[in-house]
Amino acid sequence: MQGNILIIDDEEKLRSLLKRIIGLEGFNVYESTDLKHGKKILEKNEVDVVLCDVKLPDGSGVDFIQQIKPHHPSTEIILLTAYGNIRDGVQAMKNGAFDYIIKGDDNDKIIPLLYRAIEKVQLQKRIQQLEKQVGKRYSFEDILGESRLIKNAIEMAKKVAPTDATVLLLGETGTGKEVFAQAIHNGSKRSSKAFMALNCSAFTKELLESEIFGHKAGAFTGAMKDKKGLIEEANDGTLFLDEIGEMPLELQSKLLRVLETNEFIKVGDTKPSKVNVRIIAATNRDLQKDVDEEKFRRDLFYRLNVFTINLPALRDRKKDIAVLAKYFLKLFAAKTNNRIKDMSEDFAEHLQNHEWKGNVRELKNIIERACILETSDKLTITSLPFELQTNLLLTVHNSPFDLATAEKLHIQKVLAYTKGNKTEAAKLLNIGLTTLYRKMEEYKITF
Q1: Mean per-residue pLDDT for 261-278?
Q2: 293 and 330 housed in the same domain
C-alpha cells in the first residue's frame, strides 16, 4: 500500500524527521512550510493524506480543512499541534479532519494513522469507481454522428462485439473510448456481467498492481485483509484498461499472462487464480513507436492488437459537431431545469470553426457550462467562454489587430453585461440604438 503524503509544517527539523519516517514506509512525500504553498502542491498533485500543523505563519490548519475539502473531497487531513486543545480538536473533526494528534506525545501513532487514512482514501476511490460502473450503460445507439469516419468505427465495433476478441481502441483524449468499450461490452454475450474500467495512468505501479490483480492479507504493510482486483471483479465480464500505454513494463508481463493463460497471481500470493475476462484496452499513445523504443512490450502489443479500432478526432468529423451539440444542449438544459431550446447561428458557426483539441469531451463541457450560465432561451456566442470567443474570432479574421474583430467582441461583452438589453447597451457604448442594431446585423450578433 503506497500513497502520496503532504506535510505542511514550518518547523524544519520536525518536517524532515516526519519525511524520513514516512518515506521509509514507502510513501511519496511532499513538503510545504505554509498553507499557500501547500495549496499549490494539492492543485498540481494527487495527494492522499495531508499532515498539517495547526498554527502556521499564514493561517490555521483547522480553517485550512474547510478550504480544501470541497475541492479535494477524497484527501484526508491529519492535524498536528504542539499543544493539545480540546476546542480546536472538536472543531477540526467537525470540519472534516481524519484525526488530531499532539506532536511528540503521539509520534508513534502517526504511521498506523497514515495507513488507516490511506485505506479510507482507497475505499472512497473504489466506491466512486464502482458507482461509475453501475451508472450510464452505453450502447451503440448512444454513439452519435453521421460522418463516414464515426460510422466506420461503429460498424467495426458492432462486428467485434459478439466475439471474445481482445480490442484495442486508439484515439486522442476525449474521443469516447470508454463509451465505445461499454457499447462493445453491452453488445456482447457478457452484457449481463460486470463491466469494470480502470485508468492506468491514475495510480502508482504498486497501487495499480493491487487494483488490477488484488492482494493477499499481509502482502505489504497495511494489507490487513484479502482484496479482489478488478480483473477478478470482472470475471465472466469485461475489463476496460484505459491509457494502457502508461502501464509499467513489470505489470505488462502479468497482463500478458492473463491474455495467454487466463491466469493471474495476486500480490503476495504464490498460486495462480483462474479468470474468464475479456480485455478491452485503449490509449492515445503511438504504441508501435513505444514498442520500437522498448517502452512497451512487443508481445503484449501483438496480443492487444488483435482487433484495432481508430476513433476519429472531432475536428475530422465536422458534420457531427452540430448533432452532438444539440444532443448535449437537450441533455443539460433538462438537467439544469433551464428553458434553453436552441442555439443561435453564430454560436453554431463558432462551434464548427473551433479546433476541438479536447474532442467530444471538450464540446460536452462547453455546452454544459453554457447551459448553466445562460439566462435566455437560446445559446448565443456570449454563452461561450470568452477565450473561445476571442480565439474563434481571430481565426475568422486572421488578424489580432483587425478592428472589426475588436468591435464585435466589445459589443458582445456589453450585451452580455446588460443581459441583452439593447437600450442600456447602446447607452454604455455611447452610440445610438439604431447604430447598435445596424452593427449587430453587420456582425451577425444575436441576442
Answers
A1: 92
A2: no
272 CB contacts (<8 Å, ≥6 apart)? 261, 263, 264, 265
Banded model confidence at residue 135, pLDDT cuts 50, 70, 90: very low
Is residue 6 predicted with pLDDT exceeding 80?
yes
The structure's pTM equals 0.63
Residues 279 and 423 in one domain: no
Residue 297 near residue 270 (C-beta atoms within 8 A): no
Q: Which has more pLDDT, 139 or 308? A: 308
- pLDDT of 127 reads 66
Which of 21-31 are b and which e, b meaning 16 or more Cβ less than 10 Å from the residue's Cβ? ebeebebebbb
Residue 59 sits in the same domain as residue 158: no
51 shares a domain with 24: yes
Return the CATH number at 403: 1.10.8.60
Residue 412 φ then ψ, to 5°:
-65, -40
Under 8 Å between Cβ of 81 and 105:
no
Q: Which residues does 133 contact at the CB level (< 8 Å), separation at least 6?
A: 194, 195, 196, 197
User: Could you give the 3-state DSSP secondary structure of residue 252?
Assistant: helix
User: Could you tell me if 307 and 181 are in contact, meaning their C-beta atoms sit under 8 angstroms apart?
Assistant: no
Distance CA 15, CA 29 (A): 11
- Whole-number pLDDT of residue 84: 61
375 part of a folded domain:
yes
Confidence bin at 442 (pLDDT 50/70/90): confident
Please write the tens of the pLDDT for every residue from 196-234: 999 998 888 888 998 999 988 877 776 677 888 999 999
Ordered alpha helix ranges (H), 214-357:
230-233, 249-261, 287-292, 298-304, 321-335, 345-353
Rounded to whole angstroms, the Cα distance separating 195 from 185 reads 7
Clarify whether residues 242 and 264 are in a common domain: yes
Amino acid found at 274: K
Total number of domains constituting the chain:
3
> If DSSP codes are grouped into helix, strand and coil, which group holds residue 274?
strand
- The H-or-E segment that residue 366 falls in is helix 359-373
The Cα–Cα gap between 3 and 204 comes to 8
Q: Report the percent of the chain where pLDDT is more than 70.
A: 89
pLDDT tens digits, 46-63: 899 999 998 899 998 888
Question: Kind of pairing, strands 273-274 and 278-283?
Answer: unpaired
